[in-house]
Structure formats: C-alpha cells, structure tokens
Amino acid sequence: MMRSLLIAASGAALLVACSQQPSSKTETEPAQGEAPASMPSPVATPAAPAGAMALGLTAAQLEEADLVSPTGADLGDVQRVDVDGAGVITGLIIEPTGAGERWIRLSLDGLKAKTDGDGHDIVADMTLEQLKAMPAWTP
To answer: Are 63 and 80 in contact (CB under 8 A)?
Structure first.
C-alpha cells in the first residue's frame, strides 16, 4: 500500500513538473557599451525615508544633482538614491551622459557634494568613459 502511494505521488509530481510551459522570453546581455533594448525604470528599490541624508544633502537634493568630474565636465544625472533595507542611502543611480536609457550604480565612497548656484553637483573622480564602462544597474 505504501509503495503504491509513493509511486502515485512521484508520478503526479513528474506530471506537474513536465506540464509547466517554459518561458518564451529569452534574456541576452547587450554588447559592451550598448544599452539594452528596453531598460526597466529604476523604481524597484525602496524609496529613501523622509530626512535621509548622504554627502550632506537630502535624498531630494541628491536626486536633483548632476554628476561631474573634478574639472566640472558633465558625467551624468542622478536618477535616484539607492537605499538599503534600513533606509540608509548607500549609493546613487546615475544615467551617464550620452548613454541613453542605461543606469549604473555608484557607491558613495569617494563622492563629494558641491553647491552650484541654486543646485548641487556630485563630484566623482572618474571620466565619462570609465562611468560608461561600469556594469548596468537593474532594479
């Protein structure tokens, strides 16, 4: 009796596993320097809590900032802040200049905030080419 139940359960499990349709969507990596055809909007990470700060700026100020080199060359725009599970800002999601709809994540290490008129710039000690060579960020 027990053996019959075990065989029946195994057969049912095999039927269920074999009847699932494989995904028809195939994911391929774009060539280096090439943006994917459709990049998801960076909304999957949690939002920074009110009052969260990094680099002496609020999350809202960071999200309005431009990323520049030490010489002031435009490197890209901050799209959003990246926060950990505790709501602490741990990095910035950047859209490099001329990269289209492609985002990368920069750690806060080595970044500096600078006031520029009414706004703020984030200074990164890197070139646009180095920024574009970084792996794409996906939420």
So the answer is: yes
